Amino acid sequence: MTKTVLRSVAVAGTLAACAALSIAAAPPKKPAASARTNWNAAAAVTTNGSHRLGNPEAPLKLVEYVSYTCPHCAHFQKESDPVLRLTMVPKGQISVTVTNFLRNPIDLTVAMLTNCGDPKRFFARHNAFFASQEKWLAKAEATNREQQKRWYEGDYPTRMRAISSDLGFYDQTAAWGLSRAQTDQCFASKATMDQLKVQQSDVQSLGLQGTPSFTLNGQLLDGHDWATVSRAITEKQAQQRAGNI
């Protein structure tokens, strides 16, 4: 579990098919749509602005509460991807929802960028920032007091522009085809900021103290790593097979 290491920023925040019977021989049946669907292509925004990947009717629903400056969150993603996003999600066995847990100005800046643009591309942006986390966190640790002072002064777009300049985020968004001006427009999005505020309210209502945190089918898990989530998934699947839930 990772605790806050930077000063907190206040962020006041799915056919039924009918077929006519015929005496003549019927054509071969096609496989059910659900058997053909790769649910990795199903991305949607939830009511609180979080992003869900996978089958909305999946028997298992995992919510991840993550901070972009949390090394344990990046480690969780690296460990969980082969099972969740590369195996279970495509088969429709589980859906994964990402909710932002903002602990500091950098978290807010990255969240504004991952939430900017086509919602279907959210997970690509989300994964990119975690994949490069080690590099830009090193830049953050190397900044001096005067640089960090700019992260806490002025309006939020001004702060986020300073952070992006210091940590190389403009290079990341340029790789996505966004100009600096377009990136700055993301920082000025009131709609995105309002969604992030709602997510922080959800974080507070759950009493979450560290990242990453998780709920599985609405139940808060007592742990902050892949071992905890993997065990909970196995137990829930066993219960569902037994018809206990």
Helix-strand pattern: HEEEHHEHHHHHHHHEEH
CA-CA gap between termini: 30 Å
Output the radius of gyration. 21 Å
Structural class: alpha+beta
The largest sheet, given as strand count, sense and whether it forms a barrel, is: 6 strands, mixed
Strand content: 5-15%
CATH H-level homologous superfamily name: Glutaredoxin
Strand element count: 6
Descriptive account of the structure:
With 245 residues, this protein is an alpha+beta fold. It has a single domain, classed as 3-Layer(aba) Sandwich (Glutaredoxin), CATH 3.40.30. 47% of the residues lie in helices and 11% in strands. The protein has a six-stranded mixed β-sheet, with helices on both faces. The longest helix is centred in the last third of the chain and has 17 residues. The N terminus is likely disordered.
Summarize the structure.
The protein has 245 residues and is α+β, with helices and mostly antiparallel strands.
Write the layout of secondary structure elements.
Layout (H helix, E strand, L loop, with lengths): L32 H4 L6 E3 L5 E3 L6 E7 L4 H10 L3 H5 L5 E7 L4 H10 L7 H10 L1 H10 L2 H5 L6 H12 L1 H7 L4 H8 L2 H17 L6 E4 L2 E2 L5 H16 L4
Parallel strand pairs: 3-4
Antiparallel strand pairs: 1-2, 2-4, 3-5, 5-6
Helix pairs in contact: 4-5, 4-8
Key features of this structure:
alpha+beta; Glutaredoxin; six-stranded mixed β-sheet; 12 helices; 11% strand
